[in-house]
């Protein structure tokens, strides 16, 4: 297929920009609905050095972080406080945050995760998983942790948090772990959370994990989003195992914007619990915004939903996504026994270069936590709209495979132009949907036209104006 020269030019310009480790957009036009955090001034501030911390990269500073935060807790009802981390390399084990706190990292500050496993305490598994994600039983606590908090800011002048995860990756590969690996940042049951203007490197496991951040009353402070992740760079080696970038989990009102992610697993993975445990816990993820995201992942996906989605996922809006040198772009992962649902998903304005599969929806993915799952708990996958995609050097346009007797329905594809190298660009089964203006020609199960007959069956297409992919 001969493509217009304008498409080639766009792709070439994008490929040049992609060599940078940061996005190239301006911050105008934010979709994250919150007040200006830069205007928030904590009336009390201390430096970590006031509590004996030494930034030599060797001295363990866990107690200094813990003591500083314990001291700052006395200011929680007085407007909150700021903990300043100056230039230096600050080695630490896990520490807990508090409400009404700003953790501020100087441009040349690096918080280093300890390489001693004893500095990462072992805690109970999440109830929506029933066990550690990797091993039965408990799990290691994240490097930076918080539970049942409100008004928490982790930010700075693009300082760095480095999990030094290689020891964990080696143990995982050698099967010598006793417990599931820790995340880098986990905030549970919390609201009014901002993570911004940071570089996060080498997470042992998932990098940023907001979990159960939903349906919290008294959410009057700071913003409409429960969790905002904005202007964050996340990098782990492309072969590091399961180093997801940002994983909203059983959470709602999450906004992810202006981020660059290059990791060994999904750039973003939206989750809501695992099989019978997720079904029983019943906490969905919903109202998730992903805006202006750039990155790569050689092993997994740019935007993934699942595979743990047993509590349900809905109302996901993703726009302005740029991916290069990656495996999958958009992926929904589920399986018989998961239960739950994925519905009302809208993804638009996606630019791809050198991606194996542009769109991948699969109903036969992933393991189960134990033998207690119900194999008859079938997931519902419906109302998925994907539009305005251009791509060069794409192997497969789409692999869209539902579950026999449990079709994925109302899958709608619009304005998708891909330069595909495979002789069989589409592979579809147990799926029903519609399409308009898709090249290469879509599979027969999705060939029925959206316009004029089926726009009302396609999520958001009936009430949103088309937007330019350029």
From TrEMBL:
Q: Which Gene3D superfamilies match?
A: Single-stranded right-handed beta-helix, Pectin lyase-like
**Coiled-coil annotated spans:** none
Alphabetical UniProt keywords: Cell wall, Glycosidase, Hydrolase, Secreted, Signal
Q: Has keyword Oxidoreductase?
A: no
The secretion signal range is 1-26
**InterPro entries, per database record:** GH28_Enzymes, Glyco_hydro_28, PbH1, Pectin_lyas_fold, Pectin_lyase_fold/virulence
Q: What GO terms are given for molecular function?
A: polygalacturonase activity
Q: Keyword Plastid: yes or no?
A: no
> In which family does this protein belong, per the annotation?
Belongs to the glycosyl hydrolase 28 family.
The identity of this protein, by name, is Pectate lyase superfamily protein domain-containing protein
């Amino acid at each position: 297929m001969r493509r217009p020269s304008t498409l080639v030019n766009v792709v070439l310009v994008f490929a040049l920009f992609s060599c940078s480790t940061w996005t190239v957009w301006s911050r105008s036009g934010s979709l994250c609905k919150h007040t200006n955090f830069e205007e928030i001034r904590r009336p009390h501030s201390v430096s970590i050095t006031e509590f004996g911390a030494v930034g030599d990269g060797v001295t363990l500073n866990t107690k200094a972080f813990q003591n500083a935060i314990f001291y700052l807790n006395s200011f929680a009802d007085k407007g909150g406080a700021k903990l300043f981390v100056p230039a230096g390399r600050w080695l630490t084990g896990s520490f807990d945050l508090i409400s009404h706190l700003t953790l501020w990292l100087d441009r040349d500050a690096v918080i280093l995760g300890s390489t001693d496993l004893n500095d990462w305490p072992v805690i109970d598994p999440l109830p929506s998983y029933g066990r550690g994600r990797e091993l039965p039983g408990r799990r290691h606590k994240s490097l930076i942790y918080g539970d049942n908090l409100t008004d928490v800011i982790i930010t700075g002048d693009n300082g760095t948090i480095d999990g030094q995860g290689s020891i964990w990756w080696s143990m995982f590969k050698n099967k010598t772990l006793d417990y599931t690996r820790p995340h880098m940042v986990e905030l549970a049951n919390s609201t009014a959370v901002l993570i911004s203007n940071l570089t996060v490197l080498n997470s042992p496991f998932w990098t940023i994990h907001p979990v159960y951040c939903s349906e919290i009353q008294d959410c009057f402070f700071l913003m409409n989003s429960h969790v905002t992740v904005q202007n964050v760079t996340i990098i782990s080696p492309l072969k590091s195992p399961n180093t997801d970038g940002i994983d909203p989990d059983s959470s709602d009102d999450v906004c992810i914007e202006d981020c660059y992610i290059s990791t060994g697993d999904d750039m973003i993975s939206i989750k809501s619990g695992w099989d019978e445990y997720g079904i029983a816990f019943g906490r969905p993820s919903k109202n998730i915004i992903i805006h202006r995201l750039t990155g790569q992942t050689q092993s997994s996906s740019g935007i993934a939903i699942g595979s743990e989605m047993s509590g349900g996922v809905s109302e996901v809006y993703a726009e302005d996504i740029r991916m290069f040198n990656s495996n999958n772009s958009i992926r929904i992962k589920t399986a018989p026994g998961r239960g739950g649902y994925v519905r009302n998903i809208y993804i638009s304005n996606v630019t791809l270069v050198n991606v194996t599969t542009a769109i991948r929806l699969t109903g036969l993915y992933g393991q189960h936590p134990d033998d207690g799952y119900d194999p008859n708990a079938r997931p519902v996958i419906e109302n998925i709209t994907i539009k305005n995609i251009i791509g060069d050097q794409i192997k497969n346009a789409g692999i869209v495979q539902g579950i026999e007797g449990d079709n994925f329905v109302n899958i709608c594809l619009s304005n998708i132009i891909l330069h595909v190298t495979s002789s069989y660009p589409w592979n579809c089964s147990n799926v029903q949907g519609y399409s308009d203006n898709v090249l290469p020609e879509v599979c027969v199960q999705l060939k029925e036209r959206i316009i004029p007959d089926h726009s009302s069956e396609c999520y958001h297409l009936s009430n949103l104006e088309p937007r330019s992919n350029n």
